[in-house]
From TrEMBL:
Residue span(s) of domain Transposase DDE: 217-321
Protein name in the entry: Transposase IS4 family protein
Source organism of the structure: Paraburkholderia hospita
Length: 336
């Protein structure tokens, strides 16, 4: 920062999977009840795993749905996540999450998480908040891939942090049955309703309720429905909802943030951000091919964090040497 290699204008975030020091043959089904007592007691990696479980679930309740158990759990490093690359065998792994400044590709924060998409995305909030607290840096734009384009994540960027999301919006695949896509329906904010091509309204409620309802589903959406009477007499029903009595549209509660992200995607700045995102991908390639960190030596979340942090520090030192030392001097001082 003191040498001007960090501007704080634009950040990029991404994650890369690194194999854990855990043999896949030492895994057991995630639904199996495990006795973690080994000799004098559980290992450090197991203790960290159990402490994280207690922190996440301090008081189990019958009316709260438990999280889906992982497919397999490692007996040596249970916090590692059982995952697989496309076309390859499954293995236990952690993810190293990088938050970099796009000016010179300096890593401003790193976070170790189990190799799980949800935890990778959530680590972005931790890193952005930590950089803001430590260095008083908050980017104007944050660049990421589609994994970071969920409605909740975009709302956090736009509404809570005031950051422009240079991120592709995650959305469901388009309808392939030949019927009208949701984009053909016009949203009217003033009346809180959609309008179809025939001019009929799709509303979230059609009669008043004694107790006010939010209409928000577990998926974080609000369902807007047309009138069954309108659809029954509509000449375009076969093109709209041939297999249902009415048309339904699920609107995300974070749709405003999603619309803002879509608008940014049409700007020249967004295209520049997509090119600059390669800087974080190049760091991961260097991490595994040059620094040879394709498998961890330490176990547990703290071990993964230590290795990822040391590797990121080494990459920053290398980047500083290339940026700050003149090319002519590098040629003179380079070892033979």
């Amino acid at each position: 920062m003191s040498e001007g290699l960090v501007e704080g204008e634009g950040f990029a975030v991404d994650a890369s999977v690194v194999k854990a020091d855990a043999n896949r043959a030492r895994g057991v089904p995630g639904t199996e009840v495990i006795d973690w007592r080994q000799g004098d007691g559980p290992s450090r990696a197991v203790q960290e795993y159990l402490s994280a479980l207690e922190e996440a679930n301090p008081a189990p309740s019958d009316d709260v749905e438990s999280a889906t158990p992982p497919k397999r759990i490692s007996l040596t490093d249970p916090a590692a996540r059982y995952t697989a690359a496309p076309g390859g065998p499954a293995f236990f792994a952690y993810s190293t999450n990088y938050l970099i400044d796009l000016h010179a590709g300096i890593i401003v924060d790193v976070e170790a998480t189990p190799a799980h998409r949800t935890q990778e995305v959530e680590s972005t909030k931790t890193m952005v908040d930590r950089v803001e607290q430590r260095f008083a840096l908050k980017p104007k734009r944050l660049v990421g891939d589609t994994a970071y384009g969920t409605g909740a994540m975009l709302a956090w960027m736009v509404q809570e942090k005031g950051i422009d999301p240079h991120v592709p919006v995650w959305q469901r695949p388009p309808r392939n049955d030949g019927t009208f896509p949701n984009s053909d329906f016009h949203w009217i904010e003033r009346s809180d309703e959609y309008r179809c091509a025939a001019g009929h309204a799709l509303r979230k409620e059609r009669r008043p309720f004694k107790a006010q309802r939010s209409h928000i589903t577990r998926a974080g959406t609000i369902i807007y429905r047309s009138s069954q009477t309108d659809c029954a007499s509509c000449s375009m029903k076969d093109q709209c909802c041939p297999n249902t009595p009415m048309r339904k549209i699920a609107r995300s509660v974070h749709e405003e943030a999603r619309e803002e992200a879509r608008a940014i995607a049409n700007t020249p700045a967004y295209k520049r951000s997509r090119r600059e995102r390669k800087k974080v991908e190049m760091l991961f390639a260097h991490l595994k091919r040059i620094l040879k960190l394709d498998r961890l030596r330490l176990r547990g979340p703290s071990g993964a964090h230590d290795e990822f942090l040391l590797a990121a520090t080494a990459q920053n030192l290398r980047r500083m040497a290339k940026w700050l030392v003149p090319v002519s001097q590098q040629a003179v001082t380079a070892p033979t």
